[in-house]
C-alpha cells in the first residue's frame, strides 16, 4: 500500500473531506471495507466513541488507521496503546510505513522517538502515567486502545482504566475480539466526554471456524489433520516443558515430503544454532516441527515464524501466549487440554482465553475455514481404545479395569468444549489500584488541586462502593507516608496562591515507574562501594541484579541444584529424613551481599517512602557467570536450562543495559569494564537481536534528543 499522505490527497481539512479522502484511498488500494469496518469508521467521523468488538483477523487496524488519518488532517493528536514493548516497536514501524516517519512517534520505557508527532504509539502504562500527570490538560485528542481485554489483567489492568477516568477531552476507540458485555463501558465513555458511544459488534469471521472434539490419540490425530490438508497446526500447551515433550513424540511421524525437507535444509544452511538447545531445535525443524514459547531464544522463534510463513512447518508446539505479537500462520488450533494453572490453582480455561486462542485459526486470504480441535483427556482416550480392543476380542469390556485420572486432575469433556464455544467472554473486571507512583503523578499536577483530583479519581473508578472505601483508606495511608517522609509538603493556607494545596519536595522523572525507583536507589547506593575493593565489580553487579525482575526459571534451577547438593551432604552425614526435609526447606537461590542490599534499601525508603512498593530482589546470575568466567553454554548445561535459554539471555541483556545506560562512567573500573564486555560478548554471541533492537531504538531516541 502507498503511504497515506494527506498532501497527496489534497490536504483535506474538514471532517467530510477527510472521510472522502480516506475512502478514496481505500478504493485506490483495492480495499473494500467489511460492513462493520465501514460502520465503525462512519461513527468515528461522526465524533462518537467506538467500542469495536469483532473477531481476530477482521480488520480492526483499518478502523484505527481511519481515526489516525482524521487526527493528522484535523490537527489532532492520537495515541495508540499496545500491551507490550515489542508490539509497540512493531506497530511503530508499521505506522511509519502507513503515514510516513515524520508523522509517527513512539514512547516506551526503552525509547522515545518523535514524541511531538500527531500519531503516537506507546504501551498502555505510558498513556496512563501521562493521564495521571496532566489529566484534562494532556495533549491527547484521540485514544485507540488495542487488546482492551487487558483491562481485566490483575497486574496491569489499571493502566487500561486510568485514561477512561482522566481524559475527558479525548475520543476513544476500544478494540478487542473478546470484550463480553460492553454496556458499562458505553455509559462510562459517554459520561466522561459527553460524546455518544457506539458499539460496533460482529460475530462474523472473515474465515469461519469449525470445531471438533477428538477421542483419538494426539500423535494419530495430528497425522490425520496433516493428511487432511489442515496444516499448519498449532498445538496449544500450558507449559514449556509439555511443548518440548509433544514435539519429541511427534518425531516418530513423517509430516513433510522430500522436497519440503530439502527446502527446509536449504533455508537452515545459514541459520545459527549455537546454543545448547540449538541441536534439538534444528532436528525438530528439519522434520517440519516447530516449538514456539517465551523460553526460546528470539532467533529460534523468528526462525520458526519464517519457516511457518513459507508453509514448511506442518506442526508448531507452543504455549497459550500466542495471542499478542506472534506472527505465525495457523489453519488449525489444537488444544492439548482445556485447563491451566493460574498461579494459585488449576482451573478450566476462561472463555476469554479460549476464544482469543481460537481466533488465531484460519487466515484471511489463505483459508476458507479455520479448524479448532480439543483433545479429550489422555486417560479417557486410552480407556476408550482398551474398551474397543476388549469388545473386539469378545465383548468383555465390562470387566475391564479402567485407568483413572491422575490425582488432582481437572477433568473436561465434550460438554466443557461446547460450553466454551457458546458462552460469551467473562465480564471485564476492574483492577484499579492505588500506588505511590499514582499519588505522586496526580498530586504533582500544576495549577490544580491534586488532592481533589485524587479524590475524584477514586470516586469515578470502576470499583464497587466497598472497593472505593478501601482505596480511600489506602490512599490516605500512602499520603501520610509521603508527607512524613518529606516527599510531599502540605502548604499552609497563607502560602496558597491558587488551587494547589500540596507540593512535591523532590522532582520525579516524567516517565516515573517503579523500575526507575530502583534505578534511583542504585545510583544513591553506588558511592557507598569502594572501587579499590577487589570485589568491587562483583558487588556492583549484585546491586544491578537486585533492581531487575527475577528470571524465575533460572532461580528455580539454582534452588534445585543447591537442594540436590545439600541432600547428598545430609545423607552422607546420616541425618534423619525429617531433619533433611527441614534443612531443604530453608534453601534459597544465591543472594550475595543481601544484608547490605536490604539495609541500604530500607534506609532509602525512609527518605523516599514512595519507593517502598518497588522492593529489591537480590540474586546472582550475571555475577555468578562473571565470577566463574563461565560461557552461556556452560551455564545452561550446569543448571539444565536448555528449555529456558531465552529467559536467561533476556535477563543477561537487561543486566548489560543497566551497566551501559545507568552506571556513571566515573564509577566504572577495569574489572567492571571486563564484566560488561563479557556480558555483551555473551549476549551478542548467542543471539544479538535483543541488543540490536535496543540499540536501534536508543540511537533513534538519542538522535531525537539531539535534534530537539
TrEMBL record:
Keywords: ATP-binding, Helicase, Hydrolase, Nucleotide-binding
Keyword Hydrolase attached: yes
Pfam family for this entry, one: DUF3516
Domain Helicase ATP-binding: 41-197
InterPro entries: DEAD/DEAH_box_helicase_dom, DUF3516, Helicase_ATP-bd, Helicase_C-like, P-loop_NTPase, RNA-DNA_Helicase
Domain of life: Bacteria
GO molecular function: ATP binding; helicase activity; hydrolase activity; nucleic acid binding
Domain Helicase C-terminal: from-to ranges: 217-411
Name of the molecule in the record: Superfamily II RNA helicase
